């Protein structure tokens, strides 16, 4: 049986209880696993591709080390090629095909919940650095200074793309025992400054995205995001073949496949990316907004949208949960 055949036989709701047990710390992201599962079920396996996925026990080699089920290899090729692979279950593995499907889903989403996310993750990690806003520029200058003046020359190197590398990433920690009090204070201030600049760089990029040309928001509508106490971002996709069900799919992701502690926040912003060739019906948008308000329950919920050119009729949504008021 191939992975494609297995996913066709098992529905996401069947494996959901196993996934909740396996991923108890990420119940707010269950919807992303559902999206990935639906993408895989709608995807055709690669033609004339031969490969195997081995379902085996791992671990248990050391005292007190627990054994676990591993499915591999699934990081060495595309999702289409993974779908074409034959599943081979070891003789000593006695679990249901539902559990096997859950493990395969978990493993294939290790680098991202869609092929596009996987490519973006690798681009950010290994692609050229593009400094888009002043916070990113300031962070880069600070990290350059630390790398140049506080890391021993023998541990420093640069890649062909100009990125900075340290032979041993804990180089600064290695010299902690040699630091006097003033140097430790300097390192503490630098760490706090890096943390602040990273946070503000993310917020500035969000503000720019939400107020880009064609958006229903202007910068002054969303600039408050720069000063919130804290927040959380969730991104959704309407993985459905029915254009009239796109917003219903996203709302179901929020209401049925996502467990949130809404008491931590006091406001929200929801932004829709709408394909130009497949606009939304006003009645569906009204029902969607009512559902979001009922789900979140905040008095302050702001809605915005942007029309974009796209090859598919999929709608994407970004939800920002924010804590604005000081307790």
Task: Map the helices and strands.
Blueprint: H1 3-9, H2 12-22, H3 30-42, E1 52-59, E2 67-72, H4 79-84, E3 86-89, H5 97-108, H6 115-126, H7 134-150, E4 156-158, E5 164-166, H8 171-174, H9 181-210, H10 219-222, E6 230-237, H11 246-256, E7 267-275, H12 282-296, E8 300-308, E9 316-323
Parallel strand pairs: 1-3, 7-8
Antiparallel strand pairs: 1-2, 4-5, 6-9, 7-9
Organism: Mediterranea massiliensis
Pfam family, one: DUF6557
Protein name: GGDEF domain-containing protein
Low-confidence blocks of residues: none
Helicity, as a percent range = 40-55%
Strand order of the largest sheet: 6-9-7-8
Shape: globular
How many helices in DSSP terms? 12
* Main β-sheet description: 4 strands, mixed
Protein name: GGDEF domain-containing protein
Organism: Mediterranea massiliensis
């Amino acid at each position: 049986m191939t992975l494609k055949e297995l996913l066709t036989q098992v529905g996401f709701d069947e494996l959901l209880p196993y996934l909740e047990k396996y991923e108890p710390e990420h119940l707010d992201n269950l919807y992303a696993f559902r999206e990935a599962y639906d993408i895989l079920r709608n995807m055709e396996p690669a033609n004339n591709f031969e490969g195997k996925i081995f379902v085996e026990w791992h671990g248990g080699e050391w005292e007190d080390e627990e054994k676990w089920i591993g499915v591999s290899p699934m990081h060495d090729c595309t999702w289409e090629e993974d779908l074409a692979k034959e599943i081979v279950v070891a003789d000593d593995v006695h679990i249901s095909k539902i559990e096997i499907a859950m493990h395969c889903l978990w493993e294939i989403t290790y680098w991202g919940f869609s092929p596009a996310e996987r490519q973006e993750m690798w681009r950010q990690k290994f692609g050229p650095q593009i400094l888009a806003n002043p916070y990113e520029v300031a962070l880069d200058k600070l990290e350059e200074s630390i790398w140049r003046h506080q890391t021993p020359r023998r541990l420093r190197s640069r890649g062909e793309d100009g990125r900075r590398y340290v032979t041993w990433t804990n180089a600064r920690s290695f010299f902690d025992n040699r630091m006097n009090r003033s140097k430790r204070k300097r390192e503490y201030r630098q760490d706090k400054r890096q943390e602040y600049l990273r946070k503000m760089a993310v917020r500035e990029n969000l503000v720019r995205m939400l107020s880009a040309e064609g958006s229903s928001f202007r910068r002054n509508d969303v600039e408050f995001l720069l000063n919130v106490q804290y927040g959380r971002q969730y991104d959704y996709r309407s993985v459905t073949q029915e254009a009239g069900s796109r917003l219903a799919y996203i709302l179901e992701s929020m209401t049925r496949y996502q467990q949130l502690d809404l008491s931590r926040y006091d406001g929200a912003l929801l932004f829709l990316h709408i394909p130009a060739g497949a606009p939304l019906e006003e009645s569906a948008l009204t029902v969607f907004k009512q559902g979001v308000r009922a789900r979140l329950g905040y008095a302050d919920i702001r809605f915005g949208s942007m029309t974009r050119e796209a090859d598919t009729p999929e709608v994407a949504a970004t939800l920002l949960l924010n804590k604005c008021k000081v307790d």
